[in-house]
Design brief:
Length: about 300
């Protein structure tokens, strides 16, 4: 209970910090700035962080691999390729998440096909196939940037991760996806815990391992794809946040899903606020630069000192 209260207090503090700090200082005359520009951005950063962290929590369990997240499985790059393709072809923003999701599902099917057979599921091969898919998708994105240079020139900055052109209609889509998939995962936490065992044990306990794994791979892909379609590729959120939560609260998936969602939202919101205020001139860093720096340092610490104590 104490940890829950601390987490909620931390959430309130970070939200207030994010609302009151930015490239432009607030005063009585620009309350409109906070309501129409800063508040939507805060909400989007909060939701995207929640989605990426929840996706990472699911993927690390499903693959039984502490290095699994949307990026290492290739889902992020496939989703980004879908978003860039939709932008290049002039799609309305409303359809971009659907195109992104389609590409993510196709990428997931390819990785899943390479990493599994009729009788077994090869976890290491899944990660390797995801890395290869990353390379392939990155090459296609580079081609699209070269071929459609004038129409998608801004996509280079977007791919580094950021929250630009945020509207309440976009937030509505993100909130709907986040809430629905959160409750779907949270409701299935008991069965997800059983998946932490080997497949034979899980099957003997009444869990359809193959069906559950496919179902929640799709859930993780949806979370990642929708997040990427609105914010670009933001690294390390889905990788390190589940580790932090597992180290504090343990490996129970009901706890892990809940607190990964909250911690991921707080982490990305804090990183986005830093990206807005770190340059004195008022320029903004892509938030992906900040998350990669903070996440990279923290993950080195995990690898060196704590990894064995925060995994199953």
């Amino acid at each position: 209970m104490r940890r829950t209260l601390v987490t909620l207090f931390l959430t309130v503090v970070i939200v207030i910090f994010a609302l009151t700090n930015g490239a432009v200082k607030l005063n009585d005359m620009n309350l409109n700035l906070m309501l129409n520009i800063r508040l939507p951005r805060v909400l989007m950063a909060f939701l995207v962080g929640a989605m990426l962290a929840q996706s990472g929590s699911l993927l690390q369990l499903l693959l039984r691999n502490p290095l699994a997240d949307g990026f290492t499985t290739g889902i992020s790059s496939a989703a980004a390729l879908g978003a860039v393709t939709a932008i290049a072809l002039g799609f309305n923003f409303f359809f971009i998440p659907f195109v992104s999701l389609f590409f993510a599902i196709v990428g997931l099917m390819i990785v899943f096909k390479v990493g599994s057979s009729d009788k077994s599921f090869h976890f290491t091969t899944i990660i390797l196939a995801g890395i290869v898919l990353n390379i392939i998708c990155s090459s296609f994105i580079s081609f699209l940037k070269y071929y459609f240079d004038e129409s998608i020139g801004t996509v280079v900055f977007w791919l580094m991760g950021g929250f630009y052109g945020v509207t309440y209609s976009k937030i509505t889509i993100l909130a709907f996806v986040t809430i629905v998939l959160f409750f779907l995962s949270y409701k299935s936490a008991y069965k997800l815990n059983i998946l932490a065992f080997d497949d034979l044990t899980a099957n003997s306990l009444g869990v359809n391992v193959k069906g559950m794994r496919k179902k929640f791979f799709v859930v993780a892909a949806m979370l990642t794809a929708v997040a990427v379609s609105f914010s670009g590729i933001i690294g390390f959120v889905g990788l390190i946040v589940p580790h932090i939560v597992r180290g504090i609260f343990g490996g129970d998936m009901k706890t892990n899903i809940l607190y990964s969602t909250l911690f991921g939202a707080n982490f990305l919101l804090f990183a986005d606020t830093i990206s807005r205020i770190i340059i004195p001139s008022g320029a903004e860093l892509p938030v992906g630069v900040v998350t990669s720096f903070l996440g990279g340092l923290f993950f080195i610490f995990l690898l060196k000192y704590k990894l064995k104590r925060v995994w199953y």
